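for the writeup, i need someone to sanity check this before i put it in the appendix. the sequnce is what the collaborator sent (i think, or maybe the updated version? ugh). structure was predicted straight from it, no edits. if anything looks off just tell me and ill rerun, i have time this weekend
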Amino acid sequence: MKVRIRNRFNMQTRQTLLSMVRYAVFAALAYQLLYPLLYMLSMALRAPADALDPSVIWIPKTFTLSNFADTLRVMDFWGAFKNSMLIGIGCGILDVLSCSFVAYGFARFKFPFSNGLFALVILTLIVPVQTIIVPMYADMKYFDFYGLMKLTGGPDSINLIGSYATFYLPSMLALGLRSGLFIFIFRQFFKGMPIELEDAAYIDGCGPFRTFFKVMLPNAKNSIITVFLFSFVWHWNEFYLSNLFLGTAKKNFAIALSSLRIDIQQVVNVQTISDPLTVVTRIQAGALLTILPLFILYLLTQRYFTESIEHAGIK
């Protein structure tokens, strides 16, 4: 009896220790993940005096929203918000349509070198965009779709630099940011769909295109939301291509945030921001305003996002 009690006590002690270690690891990871957000929030709510006070570490002595007011004015917040939304939503919709269509072909149709072509699609994930930026820029600067512009009697080419088309066209052709990943997510979903659904559609007289749009795509709700969310976030945060193709003509959040320090020094009273720490408070306010729409979007779509990632990983 004593041995049994001792074994039970040892087992409970072991489980308790394992739980404590597990919670400690989770707490450390949570701190690492939440630290940037907490730091931004703490700095953005500080008054200039608190920014210069070494005794203020996390909680400001005086809370203020003036940093957000200055940042909204300097960043041209609503103009940047409009441009970011137009790029993010437009590219998200186009990525969903084009990548799902390509993925359905890889998942259901057998053709020569299909596996090799799909491997090349996955390979695009590790190829940096900088390796193809010169021909990409030339194509956008002197756009002529397969020489058709010359046949119409109009100009030899069209300059797309400075327009949303520099992002819309690649997404429409399943060549946009991280399109290889989007094709992979949709392909994994379509491969897990019962073939009987398509057989029933064929019996009812549906061809491949109608089957895709009437049967397969409506059932891919979780994957659609996940791909749209990924595409929206990556285009929202994209600075390199935005700066190259749009510049200041259609400034989005990525461009506005990158030049915020210089813009603040030029627009806001110099005596107020002569110390670098007072500039940081406004930069952190701008960073919070930039990620706020993404945070709200993720809260609204978290369940679908998690389900789709689990489904793609299992398959």
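The chain has a mean pLDDT of 82. The longest helix spans residues 2-44.
thx in advance!!
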